[in-house]
Each structure stands twice: as C-alpha cells, then as structure tokens.
Design brief:
Number of helices: 8
Structural class: alpha/beta
Oligomer: single chain
Number of strands: 7
Strand order of the largest sheet: 3-2-1-4-5-6-7
Order of helices and strands: EHEHEHEHEHEHHHE
Radius of gyration: 17 Å
Helix content: 40-55%
Bound molecules: NADP nicotinamide-adenine-dinucleotide phosphate
Distance between the termini: 26 Å
C-alpha cells in the first residue's frame, strides 16, 4: 500500500536504528512525505548503504550512535538540531533480543537486552522531550512488541523491557502533555526483518506462529510504518499514552 498523505511536509524526525528493517521503512515513508529524517545505527556500513538506498538528499542525515551511550545520544540530537534546526518527532525503534530464559540468563545478558531496548528509549526520549518542551510541540513514538504483553519462551527479558517501554510511554505522555507533546507506542507481532529471520525463514516455526495470528500472516515492515505515520501526524493530536497493537488480531484471542 502506498503512503497516504499525513501532512508531514518539512517536519523533522529522529529514527533510532533506521539503517534496516522497520526503522528503514519508517524513514522511507517519512521521506516520501517530504519530511526530514535523521537515522542512527551502530555500524557505519549499514548507515552508508541505507543512505544510498533511501536517496534522501539534503532531507536525510545518517549518524553513527549507540542509543544506550549518553554521549552518542547527545551527539545525535546536537547534530540533528545543527543540521535541521528542530526535532518534531522521535521514533524509538532500536530493540534486540538474545535467546535466553530469564532464569538462566547471566546478568550481562540481562543488561545487554535492557540496555538496547529500555535504556536507549529512555535516553533518547529524555533528550527529545527536553528539545520538544521548548518547542511546545512534538511526537514520540516507540516500537514495543506483543512480547511486552504476553510472555513467550526465550523472550522473557525482552518482554520485560518492552513492558517497561509501555509504562515509559504512559509516564512521558503524562509529563509532556502540558507542552503539547504526544507520546505513544506501537506493539507488533512478528515482522519480516533480519531480527526475526531465524523464525520466519523456518517453515515449521512460521506456520506455528501464523496459527496464533487471526489475519493468517506475519507483519511486513510497512504494516508497522503506517500506524507510526498516523501517530507522527496531526491526525493523532488528542491521542497520548497509548499503545496500538499491530498484530493481525493476535492479542484479541
Ligand atoms: N522484527 C520483529 O519481528 C519485531 C516484532 C516486534 C517488535 N519489533 C521491534 O521493532 C524494532 C525494530 O526491529 P527490526 O526487526 O527492524 O530490527 P533489525 O532488523 O534488527 O534492525 C535494527 C536496527 O537498529 C539498529 N540498532 C540495533 N541496536 C542499536 C543500538 N544499540 N544503537 C543504535 N542502533 C541500533 C541496527 O543497526 P546496527 O546493527 O548498525 O546498530 C538496525 O538499523 C525493535 O524495537 C524490535 O524489538 C520487531
């Protein structure tokens, strides 16, 4: 489905983890709306190939940053402000999982998963919230997961982090509402990206997963990017503190 008109002309968005997967799709859709976009990722090569594929010209900035490193986050927002002069929206897209049961996980494994998913979302939201507060407008959208609502084998710590993101969404929504800033999340089921490839590329596992999704398929990255566009647009100005499930009905059963 091609992008609808979301009225995002000239708006500036920071997307964490925009070099592939869902973040890349969101960057592509925002650029197609004539928005200006700063993407970040840890690896230079990933950012360079995304920059080439996105063809965003002067509307696109790619910055190397680890979202759980305070200095990197500071640099990401400083560079975006220097280049574009404002930040209208932040998409907290970075997330990762390491297959482990919570009971047997080393503390270092716990820290890695919490760091990328939860600490990164905190640091970026905090910085964006401060900038947006001065601007008296803004949108923060985080990518949660159905795993934040429903425990699943080997995804326990990831689920705990995503549940934290949903609570952070409510806390920040309440704190930032007086400044005309809306904070929301989207929570997808499995999406066809590199992150989940070991699952969807295995037919037996894929069939097993799809049996739990009434729509009879997993999500594509644009299934997630469209609701994100809505939450970035003025059409959602009275919606805040919410998580939209993007799961083909999985959480309805
Ligand atoms: N795919 C799914 O099935 C699924 C389902 C539900 C929710 N989600 C959520 O959707 C979001 C995006 O997932 P995805 O499937 O698109 O993942 P992905 O394909 O693995 O892409 C992750 C992106 O984030 C970047 N990244 C990873 N760690 C980073 C860090 N610490 N700092 C900065 N950038 C970082 C990666 O680039 P570098 O490697 O270069 O850093 C890449 O651009 C995540 O929050 C994930 O939890 C995914």
């Amino acid at each position: 489905m091609s992008a609808l008109a979301y009225g995002l002309d000239g708006r500036v968005f920071v997307i964490t983890g925009g070099s592939r997967g869902i973040g890349f799709e969101i960057a592509k859709m925002l650029l197609s709306q004539n928005a200006k976009v700063a993407v970040c990722g840890r690896k230079k090569e990933g950012l360079e190939s995304a920059q080439e594929a996105l063809k965003g010209g002067n509307n696109l900035l790619a910055i190397q940053a680890h979202v759980a490193k305070e200095d990197d986050v500071e640099n990401l927002f400083n560079k975006t402000m220097e280049y574009f002069g404002k930040v209208d929206g932040l998409i907290n897209n970075v997330g990762m999982n390491l297959i482990t049961s919570a009971t047997d996980a080393d503390y270092s494994l716990w820290q890695k998963i919490i760091e990328s998913n939860l600490n990164g979302t905190f640091l970026c939201s905090k910085r964006a919230g401060q900038i947006m507060r001065n601007q008296k407008r803004g949108k923060i959208v985080s990518i949660s997961s159905i795993a934040g609502r429903r425990s699943a084998p080997a995804m326990g710590i990831y689920g705990i982090a995503k549940a934290g993101i949903e609570m952070m969404t409510k806390v920040l929504a309440q704190e930032l509402a007086p400044f005309n800033i809306q904070v929301n999340s989207v929570a997808p089921c499995m999406v066809r990206t590199k992150f989940s490839e070991p699952f969807w590329s295995n037919k037996e596992i894929y069939d097993q997963i799809v049996r739990t999704i009434p729509m009879g398929r997993i999500a594509e990255p644009d299934d997630v990017a469209h609701p994100v566009m809505f939450l970035c647009s003025d059409a959602s100005n009275f919606i805040t503190g919410q998580t939209i499930m993007v799961d083909g009905g999985a959480s309805a059963i």
